[in-house]
């Protein structure tokens, strides 16, 4: 397995991962497109996620827009991520 994607029933894209040796080959975009088709077939009007600083540019290229940056704290470590969504026509 070189990557995976998971999406909750409400359209929350929870995980999108591609192994480092297989990045920049279109795999993440293919996974994202697959989950979009699945969401559309289930009648969802959007996908949404919390993207890391590193993942933020990828999601913008995939058609997501930033709703808001946010500071998240886990185990006393704070970091910035971005609430993002992609609406379907």
Structure overview:
It contains two helices and five strands. The chain is of the alpha+beta class and 89 residues long. The protein has one domain: 3-Layer(aba) Sandwich (Aminopeptidase), CATH 3.40.630. The chain has a three-stranded antiparallel sheet with strand order 3-5-4. Strands 1-2 form a two-stranded antiparallel sheet. It is globular and about 40 Å long. 20% of the residues are buried. The model has no long low-confidence stretch (mean pLDDT 95).
Query: Could you tell me the radius of gyration in angstroms?
Result: 13 Å
Which CATH architecture would you pick? 3-Layer(aba) Sandwich
Tell the overall outline. Answer: globular
Quaternary organisation of the protein chains: single chain
Strand-pairing-aware structural class: alpha+beta
Gap from first CA to last CA: 32 Å
Main pleated sheet: 3 strands, antiparallel
Q: Summarize the amount of helix as a percent range.
A: 10-25%
Sequence stretches where pLDDT stays below 50 over 5 or more residues: none
């Amino acid at each position: 397995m070189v990557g995976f994607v998971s999406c909750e029933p409400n359209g929350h894209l929870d995980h999108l991962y591609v192994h480092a040796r297989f990045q920049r080959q279109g795999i993440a975009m293919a996974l994202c497109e697959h989950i979009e088709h699945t969401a559309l077939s289930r009648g969802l009007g959007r996908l949404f996620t919390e993207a890391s600083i590193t993942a933020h540019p990828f999601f913008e290229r995939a058609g997501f827009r930033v709703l808001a940056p946010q500071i998240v704290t886990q185990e006393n470590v704070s970091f910035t991520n971005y609430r993002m969504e992609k609406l379907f026509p």
